[in-house]
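Before our next group meeting I need something from you. Please put the record directly below this note.
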Amino acid sequence: MMQLLYLDPGSGSYLIQVIIAGVLAVLFYFKNTWNWIKSFFIKTAPKNEEEKNESSD
């Protein structure tokens, strides 16, 4: 017997949301991982007077 697959609008929109959330989660993960790796190789200058005073101690 042939079964017909039915995807109602609620399930379809939920599936699209899950796919988009998965793609964004992967992008966020790799962006944070890349920034974490870059932070080992790039030294940034102090941004304000407090940090300059602390670094000179």
Remarks:
- Helices lie at 9-41, 49-56.
- The mean pLDDT is 81.
- Residues 15-40 form one domain.
- The two ends are 80 Å apart (CA to CA).
